[in-house]
Amino acid sequence: MMNEQLHIIITGDRGKIFRIPCSRKKLRLLLSASILFLLFLIITSIFSISLFTKNRDYSSRISELKHQLKLSEETIAKHEKINETQRLKLNLQVANLELNNVKQAMAFKEEKEMLMSTAVSELNERSELIEKIMGTIGIHLEKKKDSETGNSGGPFIASQDEARDDLLFRADKYLKTIRAIPLGKPIQGTITSLFGKRKDPVNHKKAFHTGIDFRGRRGDKVYATADGIVKKAFKNGGYGRYILIDHGNGYTTAFAHLQTILVKRGERVTRGQLIGLVGNTGRSTGPHLHYEVCLNKKPINPYKFMKIASLLKKSSSAPSEKK
């Protein structure tokens, strides 16, 4: 059996010899350990190299991302600058539009005031004309009543629209008054007998005519001369078929010798509304319309009302009659 003991001899420079006894078993263990250590170093190196490579890739990607981030920040800053410029331009445009709107509003206001002034002036002229015309038949409007001033107070502020309000009040009152006053002709026929004294057409004696007679043909249309309510619509003795309309303020109109009555008692009518047809009923010598205007149940001459209607039509301030 061979000796298992081995000696490792190490010789120094001075000839000194060192002997290290070592068995084969220990040598194999040492060799195995060395191999394992070498493998560990190799594996560790490979892992380190791989980790280094990955770290280098990550560093490269991080650098690239940082570069992209920088570019993005620069782009965002650029867009923000552009947006700020556009916002300033937009604000300037809005300011210009607002200024233009203010200027336009001021221009509209001046134009409105000018048109209003012109309209008020024209309305005043026409109101004065209407007032003068209506005054010829003794129609005067009541003045606008002042509101009560008791138990009130406060600082005095002059009203710039007082004259305008007063004018509108007058014009409104005149329009309402005109609509309730019998103006114009009830038919378009010619006048055959005027209001007042005359010779009776049947017995040829002296008489008083309480209205105006208009020549017509049977079936000619007869119109109301003002707004009102029908008080009578029936056959009335010598008047024949007869309509009486109450217009308020004491005014009434009557239409006689009709062939046909087209309204009923209690019906509300308006100026220009068709109310009947010309006939020859009652005490009559031929087809015609007898037309009366009464104030407080007293007959008055309808002719001056028809004349006023023509004057009002020229002034363009009264509602036009329906034909």
Automatic annotation (TrEMBL):
Domain M23ase beta-sheet core: 208-302
UniProt-listed CDD domains: M23_peptidase (cd12797)
Regions annotated as coiled coil: 55-112
One of the Pfam families matching this protein, by short name: Peptidase_M23
Any one Gene Ontology molecular-function term assigned to this protein's record: metalloendopeptidase activity
PANTHER family: MUREIN HYDROLASE ACTIVATOR ENVC, PEPTIDASE-RELATED
Full protein name: M23ase beta-sheet core domain-containing protein
Source organism of this protein record: Desulfomarina profundi
